[in-house]
Structure to design on (174 residues):
């Protein structure tokens, strides 16, 4: 038996990570109508589409809490993953993809190497920035887990205090 989630958890999770229905449908690889019908409780919550929605929201940092004796089901952000302050908007030739995160109350500028994005997305290196940005979004969870791993090592920072995330920091690439 899989872990059940309900429509209000999907809506709350989407709101928590500031994700529109259109963005979530795209991230989950489902139709917008399907998402709308699931959120409106017009479709059952045990479908493959709901599993894809759950995966997409978990990738964005949502943690689904199951109901207990004293509370109903809910959502919150994962506690061991940095929160994105400014998402990436470009890929720089030598430094990689810059973005900033909040980690323990501080802002950290992060660069993920071009090679990491290419390895995650199985890219050839000739793609547009848009393809790299889509790859970042698809692998956001793995990348942020890599940031959490890299951030504890001083040798991953440059003299300006910028954090560099490399393949050895990403679990699926290490």
């Amino acid at each position: 038996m899989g872990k059940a989630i309900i429509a209000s958890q999907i809506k709350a999770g989407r709101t928590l990570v500031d994700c529109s229905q259109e963005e979530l449908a795209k991230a989950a690889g489902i139709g917008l109508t399907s998402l709308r019908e699931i959120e409106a409780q017009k479709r059952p919550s045990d479908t493959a589409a709901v599993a894809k929605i759950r995966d997409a929201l978990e990738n964005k940092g949502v943690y689904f809490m199951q109901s207990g004796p004293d509370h109903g089901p809910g959502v919150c952000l994962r506690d061991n993953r940095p929160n994105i302050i400014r998402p990436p908007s470009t890929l720089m030739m030598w430094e990689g993809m810059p973005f900033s995160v909040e980690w323990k109350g501080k802002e950290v500028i992060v660069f993920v190497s071009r090679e990491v994005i290419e390895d995650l997305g199985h890219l050839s290196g000739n793609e547009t920035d848009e393809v790299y940005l889509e790859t970042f979004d698809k692998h956001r969870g793995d990348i942020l887990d890599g940031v959490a791993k890299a951030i504890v090592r001083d040798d991953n920072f440059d003299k300006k205090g910028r954090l560099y995330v490399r393949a050895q920091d990403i679990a699926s690439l290490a």
In short: The chain has a mean pLDDT of 91. The domain at 83-169 is CATH 3.30.160.140 (Double Stranded RNA Binding Domain). The helical segments are 7-16, 21-28, 32-39, 48-59, 114-121, 129-138, 140-150.
